[in-house]
Structures are given as C-alpha cells and as structure tokens.
Amino acid sequence: MIEPTRQLITAGNTAFLQHTVKQLLGYGWSVSHAVNAHKAIELLDKKPCQIGLIAIDPSTSILPLEIDSSPRLADISWIAIVERNELSHEKTREQIFNTCYAYQIHPIDARKLDTVMESALAMANLQGTHPIPTLSCLDDEYQIVGNSPTVQLLYRTIAKVAAANAPVLITGESGTGKELTAHAIHAHSSRRHGPFNVVNCGALPSGLIQSELFGHEKGAFTGANQRKVGIIENSQGGTLFLDEIGDLPLDLQVNLLRFLENLKVLRVGGLQEIPVDVRVLAATHVDLDVAVGRGAFREDLYHRLNVLQVRVPALKEHLEDIEALARFFFQKFSAEKPTKVCGFSHECLTVMRQHHWPGNIRELVNRVRRSMVMCEHRLITPADMGLERRHRLSRDVDTLQQIRDAAEYEAIRAALIRNKHNVMRASIELGVSRVTLYRLLEKHGIEKNGCHDERQAIHVSSR
Ligand SMILES: Nc1ncnc2c1ncn2[C@@H]1O[C@H](COP(=O)(O)OP(=O)(O)OP(=O)(O)O)[C@@H](O)[C@H]1O
Ligand SMILES: [Mg+2]
User: Fold this and answer.
1) Does residue 319 have its Cβ closer than 6 Å to ligand 1?
2) Distance of CA 219 to the CA centre of its chain
3) Averaged pLDDT, 277-302
4) Which of 195, 246, 395, 420 holds its CA 20 to 30 A away from the CA of 301?
5) Do 341 and 364 belong to one domain?
C-alpha cells in the first residue's frame, strides 16, 4: 500500500478557508491554494495531491471551480465547505453531490474535518493508485486480471498445464473466462509462436463440422470443388481450442478420439492420414460426467480429453477481485473512447461486491461498458451499472461516528484481503487483538468462513 501524502489543495472563498487551513497545518497537512481551475492544474502538476478543500462563496452559492471541466480536477476527492443555509439551494446540493466526496458545515471543526480528509485519502489510495494484478500474456488483449487466492490458484494451474502437452479440459460457468484461460495456456506453452485456433462445436451445422475440422479432398462430396485443409491441420505446431465440446455430435466424437490417439487426420474423401503436431484444449459449461451418463458424450473421449483439468471459478468465488476487474475494464474502455468519468463511487464498489453475478465476468464487462455511457457524474453509481442500491451512500454520512464506522469497515475489509483472510495476521496488522477483530467482523456483518482455508472467500452481508 502506498503511504498517503497529506498534501491538500484548496480553492474558493479565502475568508472561509483561512482559519481552517491554519488549523489543518497543525494536523500535518501541507496546503497550496488555487485561485482558479487553471492555477489548480498548474499546482497539481508541481505537487500531485488527492484531496481538495473547496469553499462555497455564500454570495454565489456555487462551487468556485468547475471540477468536471478537467479529469485532473475531477480525480481529486473534494470536500466542500458550505454554510448550512446554502444547502437549501437545490443547485448547491446537486453540485456537491455530483462532484464532491463529502461536505462540512461552516464553522469547521478541524478535528472532524481531519478525520473526513483522512478517510478520503484512504479511499483514494484504495482506488486507482495500485497496479492492477494480472497474469501477463504475450498479447495485452488476453490478460487475466485478479489477485485473490482463487485466481492465484488458477494462475498456478495454468502454468502447470502449459508446461505439459496433453489435452486439457477447461470447465466453468458461462462467462467466467474459459476461452481466456485457453489463450493463457497457449501463450505460456512452448507452442506460443504457433497458431491458436478456435472451433465452437455448438455453432457449426453438424454437416459441416467434419470437413471444418478434418478438411476434405476435391470431389469428396457434392459441392467440394476444391481441396480444403481442415482447422486441425491448420493448427500445426500450435493449439486447437474446441469450445463447447459437449455439443460435438457423437459420430464426430469417434473421429476426434481417433485423432487424439494417433495425432493423424484423414481428410474427408482422402486416402492417406496426415500427421499433425497440435495440442487440443477443450471447454464446456455442461457437466460432461452427466452427458456421459445419459449417453450424449463418449466415455472414452471424455477420459482422453480429461487428462488435465482446469476449473475456472465463478466470479462470486473471487469477489475480492471485483474492484481490480472493474478498473481494468474501465481503463480499457477509456483508452478506446476518452471519457470524463473518473472511476467508481465507493458505494458502487460496495454494491458490486454484493451482487451475485450470474453472468460472471462477461456480465461485469457489459455493466461497466453500460455505466460509462450512462454516467452523468464524476463517479459511476450503482444505478449507472443497473445495480440495485442497497446501502446508504458514504457521502450521506454526516456524523463523526458514521464516518468512523465507514473507515473502520473499509480498513478491516482491506486488511483481510491483504492477509488472505487470515484473521490472526489481519489483527496483527490492524494492531488489535484477534478477539477484537472478531467482534468488529460481527459488528460490520463481515462473515469469515474457514479462516484456515486461504481459498475461502469473505462474504459481506447487508450492513
Ligand atoms: N480474469 C479475467 N480477467 C480479465 N478479463 C476476463 C477475465 N475472465 C474473463 N474475462 C473477460 O470476460 C469475457 C468472457 O470471457 P470468456 O469468453 O473467456 O468466457 P467463457 O467462460 O469462455 O464464456 P462462455 O461460457 O460464455 O463461452 C471476455 O471479455 C474476457 O476477456
Ligand atoms: Mg467461451
């Protein structure tokens, strides 16, 4: 974790600010004052900072800087200082809500403000400054994102099976990343410079699959005007990924089995078998065991394909990765199309961690894409993502106790994730006893399942 810098930028009504700033110096904040947006950006170039204090002038009732005018300014967590009666203006309330992290009523209690700023700083450090953990591939397009114990286990399995040459059966729910996993296996194998070809066994008409996979000779059947080299032959020296293998018709399962046993293909209408050096990876979201049981899948082929297995976890099994994944897709889509949106609100991240994600990572990709189109503010809200809002907003928080609770909740959650859900280690890091940490877990509704099993996920129930 990066050490937070207690650097602060201020803007707006100086009479309001003077006294406050003097007090904040006593709390260790270094302050620079910007007279306008242009000056603020200049100051940020010289002294980067994450926290801003913005005082609303009672004579205008509007924010003195157009925060949304620049991503540099929108990136700052702003805390507004406002007179209580100013909050009766709808425009003022709307501006604060859309652009600020929190607000404080004038006259300011410096201790309370320091706590709010510290919480904003901690939050800013949680979001955005640390690198997104990935399993790097040769091609950036196929990066696997995640750092949870569950995904670490996936990385290790990928590395092990990549070093072998036997077929691999990749299983997992729809949208979990089976195809991405197949890419990663290929990219980490000695075949990485060879081709990577994909056949979706469920998408091809059954009459075409045979010649698609094995090729045909000229005149082999009506309409075969030319020789066609099949995709297996075309994968020479590389990897062939057979997606939705459970949909392969039974007659072709025999041919595939024969190929896997002798690594030779016979084109349709051909007389001579052709040796091909190709590794087969197969994926399915159906339970092949069950398919074998009801006679829809050959048992011998099942065992031949199932030499090595990779199970790709559902997103609900590694919710700790949701923030990194969401930020990864956010950055990817921002690079494709520049946006004024800066990231996800704290509440949005909380709601994301509570959603069940039946569509797994594909659902997340689509929701992030949608939210970037729908978002009208600086930060993406649960509504922008089409997710239900079940909790109070952190920016609704206005008592010191509520601010402390929110900060405490975040600190505990982050410590548990950093310590791979080991309560003992997390309690040492947080400087509290294990008993106290258990009490706090109960207070915040954070359930810890199986402290001894590092692969267990933390479940956060409704607070
Ligand atoms: N760990 C991950 N990191 C980054 N992106 C991921 C990850 N897992 C999946 N994705 C992305 O999610 C989307 C779905 O992944 P993929 O197509 O590999 O899933 P699948 O399991 O093959 O789905 P289906 O069963 O529907 O065919 C893709 O856009 C992929 O890039
Ligand atoms: Mg797929």
Assistant:
1) no
2) 51
3) 94
4) 195
5) yes
Q: Is residue 424 a part of any domain in this protein?
A: yes
Q: Is the pLDDT of residue 4 over 70?
A: no
- The pick from 155, 180, 281 for probing ligand 1's pocket by mutation, whose C-beta has the most ligand atoms within 8 angstroms, reads 180
Are 141 and 281 contained in the same domain? Answer: yes
Return the CATH number at 39: 3.40.50.2300
DSSP string of 193-245? TS-EEEEETTTS-HHHHHHHHHEE-TTSSTT--S-EE-HHHHTTTSEEEEETG
CA dist 154 and 176 (Å) reads 12
Which residue has a Cα nearest atom 15 of ligand 1? 177
* Separation between Cα atoms, residue 8 and residue 40, nearest integer Å: 11
Task: Name the residue range of residue 53's domain.
Answer: 7-126
Same domain, 262 and 155: yes
Q: What is the pLDDT of residues 53-88, one digit of tens each?
A: 999 888 888 888 888 677 678 778 899 999 999 899
Confidence of residue 389 (pLDDT cuts 50, 70, 90): low
For a ligand 1 pocket test, name from 144, 362, 364, 366 the mutation site with the most ligand atoms within 8 angstroms of its C-beta. 362
Pairing of strands 446-448, 458-460: antiparallel
Copy the structure tokens of residue 252.
């072709």
Supply 163's token pair. 């070093």
Residue 389 in any domain: the answer is no
Over residues 129-138, the pLDDT tens digits come to: 556 667 765 5
Q: Is residue 439 part of a domain?
A: yes
| Cα→Cα distances 110→20, 101, 105, 395, Å | 7, 17, 11, 18
Q: Answer with the residue of higher pLDDT: 64 or 226.
A: 226
